[in-house]
Amino acid sequence: MKRMAVNDCYCIARLRDRARARLPSGVFDFYDGGAEDEITLHDNCNAFSRVRLLPRVLRNVSRVDMSTQLFGAAMALPMAIAPTGAVGFGWRGGDIALAQAAAKHGIPYTLSTSATASIEEIADKAPGRLWFQAYILQDKQRLQSLIDRAKAADYEALVITVDLPVGGKRERDLLNGLSFPMKLGYRNIGQFVRKPGGRSICCCTSRR
Ligand SMILES: Cc1cc2nc3c(=O)[nH]c(=O)nc-3n(C[C@H](O)[C@H](O)[C@H](O)COP(=O)(O)O)c2cc1C
């Protein structure tokens, strides 16, 4: 079979095709899917497709500078990486690679509570502007200990996720037998066996 190159992906649709071909279907569905008939997911995609760039012509573009300030510190671009859980299920070391790319390009990276790398590992391997995402956990002691660890590792901001008092009814995940935090069970283990990759099956913010 001809090996597909990932670096010839010039648009999200192509990247998505590549991911669908390479990943276990349950993992692909987790990244790609949404909740409740995916109506909001489609609405969001449609909303983005209506966004247009406003061309400003006849300007001096000999030096383009998109840098800005946020929370009193400089960033090279007006964007940050949002928290994404389970990245390591798609690519071993994916969280670290993302955090390193963010540091290299001078933008903040947000580590998810559901990440597949630990708070300390990211701080050690990708020193840059780090933010830590936390859920409002029922276990307040665990929440405090995560926040303390992030603080001790020099994360500069806390990102609180407030829209998850209960998990969404993600129908693809239910069909695939996936729960979150993602666990391997009898319904999904076959996909990992059929498409073994470099997935790191480990949890998140636990110390390693
Ligand atoms: C695969 C995936 C995993 C995500 N994991 C988390 C997470 O662990 N914590 C969190 O607060 N948000 C998580 N999000 C939400 C994103 O951080 C972001 O808020 C959301 O995708 C909306 O931004 P977008 O329109 O750029 O996708 C996740 C989103 C996706 C698609």
TrEMBL record:
<dbReference type="InterPro" id="IPR000262">
    <property type="entry name" value="FMN-dep_DH"/>
</dbReference>
<keyword id="KW-0560">Oxidoreductase</keyword>
<protein>
    <submittedName>
        <fullName>L-lactate cytochrome reductase</fullName>
    </submittedName>
</protein>
<dbReference type="InterPro" id="IPR013785">
    <property type="entry name" value="Aldolase_TIM"/>
</dbReference>
<keyword id="KW-0285">Flavoprotein</keyword>
<feature type="domain" description="FMN hydroxy acid dehydrogenase">
    <location>
        <begin position="4"/>
        <end position="208"/>
    </location>
</feature>
<dbReference type="InterPro" id="IPR037396">
    <property type="entry name" value="FMN_HAD"/>
</dbReference>
<keyword id="KW-0288">FMN</keyword>
<dbReference type="GO" id="GO:0016491">
    <property type="term" value="F:oxidoreductase activity"/>
</dbReference>
<dbReference type="Pfam" id="PF01070">
    <property type="entry name" value="FMN_dh"/>
</dbReference>
